[in-house]
Amino acid sequence: MATARKRRLRERARRLEAVAPRRFPGFIRVMLLASAMMLVPALIGASERDWLVARVFLIHGVFFAFLSVILGLAVMNRVPRIAERYHLVTLFLVYALLPLVLATPVNAIVPGVSIGAAYFEMLSCLTTTGATLFDRAPELLPAPLHLWRAMTGWAGGFMALVVVFAILAPMNLGGFEFAEAAGVGNRSATIDEAARRLVRFSTEIGPIYAGLTGLLAMALLIAGDPPLVAVSHAMGTLSTSGVSPIGGVQDAPSGRLGEILVAILFLPAISHRITNYHLRHRRWPTFDDPQFRLMLISVLGVTLVLYLRAFAGAAEIDREHDLAGTLRALWGGFFTSVSFLTTTGYVSADWRASQLWSNLPQPGTILMGLAVMGGGIATTAGGVKLFRLYVLYRHGLREMDLLTHPSSVLRRGRGERLITPAGARIAFIFLMLFLIAIAVAMVGLAATGLGFEESLTFAIAALTTTGPLAGTLGEAGRYAALPDSALAILSLGMIVGRMETLVVVALLNPAFWRR
Predict the structure, then answer these.
(1) What is the pTM of this model?
(2) Other CB atoms within 10 Å distance of the CB of residue 289
(3) I want to staple 31 with a disulfide (CB 3.0 to 4.6 A). Which of 68, 100, 276, 407 is the partner?
(4) Mean pLDDT, range 285-314, rounded to an integer
(5) DSSP assignment, residue 276?
(6) To the nearest whole number, what is the mean pLDDT of the chain?
(7) What are the pLDDT digits (tens) for 456-498?
(8) Membrane spanning segments where (predicted)?
(9) Is residue 299 a contact partner of residue 341, using CB atoms and an 8 Å limit?
């Protein structure tokens, strides 16, 4: 009798395992998580007695949860033949289709917003771009909707961190094709092992990522920001999405103290060792990290150039002796440079003050160059990434050395040991693909009626996931004023920029599908 009972228990456990969500395809599991996230703004709306918002998020959350379970049960027994293809297709589907799920509450709550515009808004948040259609009067949106945008950007940043280690690293993609962590990519990329890695990296990165977000939110709250502003800016900083319910940190009540706190938490976008130091034998980033050194050189150099530019402009109108204006110009240039280098896009309040001091327009080209440089590999930042530029720099030094000493032997210092033999070639290929993507996006945007400057700025903003970069165009940089065709091109650009061009090329390779 006891044996029969044990047999029934084993049979029940086997049935539960057969229908467990872990056997669902990856896209379905992400849909389940997105449905669960909708309960948070529903609860916030209920606490504020905003029953429309609470009802919309609750109904959509329950609906998509049931839909996810039904679809998961329908396709759970399908076994993909090629694991690499399954991973990349799943990643593309998440970025291409999940924003449609995330956009349905926005479409139902905000009057006059089409499903296409809501899709663009949520895709921008999910890819940590931060391009928004609600920049004119953000205070008109309900607080739960701002929280929903910030949560989506925060979750998108966390997903980017986990995916790059669990999925892209075994394929030698996502920055691991030439860096010190290239050995991580030598492991098998089967679906079961990828699932185990997703769980392991989520448990390792998640507490640090969430802890830093909570720490920054508490600090901003103490500095004087309201709860919604503090939480949104903390999420926008750690995810580099730049999402803000008030238009940016320059309008936050915390002032310059809040900007200092935010600037400190830009560091996780420079080196991946801050949010996942467990993976590197608990080694924290140091100043001999090439990404940190390149960041310091770039930011300090740009800050100096911006200050000299502002000082020259102030001298023309006899304001060069204003010490307060000098200090504001220095801090505004430093904070804004770091922000755009990490592709976050927050602007300091002193950045505007320095423009008034110098009576000069915004240096959009310099900010554009910083956004193209991007942050560190395996971080939430976009752009070309600092380590790829470092690889090209070391290769350039080696080529110049060979011009004067053709028979010289390469010194294997720490800088060379960080780079695989084919690192320079891969970095150059990535840079060329990135520039080609910018050119293609510019041609598409120009066909919609935009001028050269607008096309270049919007294309770089999408491909580097730095949506606030369009603000350098002034009134012409409003996403809400763009036609639907331009928004569609920018949506595709944001997906390519978040997945990176090498991943997209691998996905579009015909040989990849014939295997």
Answers:
(1) 0.90
(2) 20
(3) 68
(4) 84
(5) -
(6) 85
(7) 999 999 999 999 999 888 888 899 999 999 999 999 999 999 9
(8) 24-46, 52-76, 88-110, 146-168, 208-236, 294-315, 327-346, 366-391, 426-450, 486-508
(9) yes
Amino acid at 1: M
Task: Give the number of residues written for the chain.
Answer: 515
Which pLDDT tens digit goes with each residue over 9-46?
A: 566 545 544 445 567 888 999 999 999 999 999 999 99
Place 120 in a pLDDT band, splitting at 50, 70 and 90: very high
CA 239 to chain centre: 6
Cα-Cα-Cα-Cα dihedral of 310, 315, 318, 321, to 10°? Answer: 70
Question: What is the Cβ-side half-sphere exposure of residue 123, based on CA atoms within 13 angstroms?
Answer: 28
CB under 8 A, 24+ apart: contacts of 207-214: 208/274, 208/275, 208/276, 208/277, 209/157, 209/158, 209/161, 209/238, 209/275, 212/238, 212/265, 212/268, 212/274, 212/275, 213/154, 213/238
- The 8-class DSSP code of residue 361 comes to -
Residue where the block lists tokens 């771009």: 129
How confident is the model at residue 103, as a pLDDT? 96
Q: Which of 252, 157, 261, 250 is nearest to 209 (CA)?
A: 157
Evaluated on CA atoms 357, 360, 362, 364, the torsion sign reads negative
CA proximity to 367, closest of 343, 393, 331:
343
135-169 pLDDT tens trace = 887 888 899 999 999 999 999 999 999 998 888 87
Residue with tokens 């420079």: 270
Dist CA 336 CA 474 (whole Å): 16
Contacts with 398 (C-beta within 8 Å, 6 or more apart), sequence order: 410
424 Cβ contact list (under 8 Å, min separation 6): 178, 391, 392, 394, 395
Q: Are 175 and 378 in contact (CB under 8 A)?
A: yes
Map tokens 């940590």 to a residue: 128
Q: What pLDDT, on the 0 to 100 scale, is given for residue 18?
A: 46
| pLDDT band with cut points at 50, 70 and 90 for residue 184 | very low
Q: For residue 7, give the amino acid letter.
A: R
Instruction: Tokens 């050189």: give the residue.
Output: 297
Place of tokens 């084993």: 10
What contacts 370, CB < 8 A, 6 or more positions away?
298, 302, 337, 340, 341
Which of 419, 385, 383 is closest to 179 using CA atoms?
Answer: 419
The span from the CA of 40 to the CA of 480, in Å, is: 27
